[in-house]
Predict the 3D structure of the following.
Amino acid sequence: MKVLILSTSHRKESNSLRTSLYIQSVFKQKGYDAHVIDFVNDDIPLVGKGVIDLNNLSNFQSELIKKWEDSQIVIVVTPEYNWGLNANVSNLFHQLGDKTFKHMFDNKIFGMVGISSGRGGKIPAVNLMILISKLINFLNQYSIVSPKILELHEVPHHLNEKGELIIHHGILEKSVIDFVSYTEKLSLKWKF
């Protein structure tokens, strides 16, 4: 089974990327083919200023769409900015929320991860759950948005830029393992 992890921050060596790499390592330890796409080079056009043109995809867009299509599990890792969802991840789903891309919301398990350099992370994950559920409904597809949210705090104190633990942190490790295990069990119950 293939897993796609979207690190949706534009910042270089972001906390989202650290978290995504750590989640990827846990999925790989379980034998999954897991990939991370870092949004540091995101070039999705802003809504109202352009569209994703399937006949003229950038390298970023092509990789994103291909890996998403090939994956059964899509994990979205998003930072909490001022208690809300970051604009680029919102823009991504608004651009993909079109019948052209409806297949990207079919036969998938979507998992949400909210992260923060301080306290927080849950609000953007909940907002994404609502947004993706709405798209699945609107596009009349069959997918599941996992009710299990992973919320990680003070990421730069626990994970380095390679997504490795700086020090062992029982709560963080258990939270990620529980999230990955829950997502795995959900995907096994949902027959692709």
In short: The chain has a mean pLDDT of 93. The CA atoms of residues 97 and 177 lie 31 Å apart.
